[in-house]
Design brief:
The protein is built from six helices and five strands; from the N terminus they run βααββαβααβα. It has 156 residues and is an alpha+beta fold.
């Protein structure tokens, strides 16, 4: 029999025996609480953010593995700033993020982003800041990206 994959979107550290995993795992005869504990330990760092989680079970052996996806860049930015959402219109600014916070987001997303260097990944985070109308150390994200490109802002 082929492996069974169960996908869910879970708030970091808050998986439970309820949906989406409990009802799907029950018929497979695996230890649900053990799996939930593993999900919670692997997602604790993303508290307050919904992140994709996959549980892959081999029904024959009851062996399983938990794979944690990467939360959206925008969710990590919002968490860094402690705000509920980005700006509504072009004229509104949702918040101001520091370069250290931008680097922190880039490092957290590093395996899910393209680019060979931290600077490449920082520029992707800055692009998300631009679309959310979040300023970077008081300047718009486009200016910050230009300063990273020119070397005025050093990354790494």
């Amino acid at each position: 029999m082929a492996d069974v994959t169960i996908n869910g979107l879970i708030e970091g550290g808050k998986a439970s025996g309820g949906p989406p995993f409990g009802p799907a795992l029950g018929p497979l005869g695996v230890n649900i609480s053990k799996i939930v504990d593993e999900i919670n330990s692997k997602t604790k760092a993303f508290e307050g953010i919904k992140i994709p989680v996959k549980v892959i079970v081999d029904p024959a052996t009851k062996a399983y593995r938990v794979e944690v996806g990467s939360p959206p860049t925008s969710a990590l930015i919002l968490k860094e700033l402690g705000i509920p959402k980005g700006a509504k219109g072009k004229d509104e600014t949702a918040g101001n993020i520091t370069m250290e916070q931008v680097k922190s987001v880039a490092k957290a997303k590093s395996t899910a982003m393209y680019g060979n260097t931290l600077a490449d990944k920082v520029k992707q985070v800055l692009g998300t800041c631009k679309s959310m109308n979040i300023t970077v150390e008081g300047m718009n994200a486009k200016e910050a990206t230009a300063k990273v490109n020119s070397g005025d802002i050093k990354i790494e």
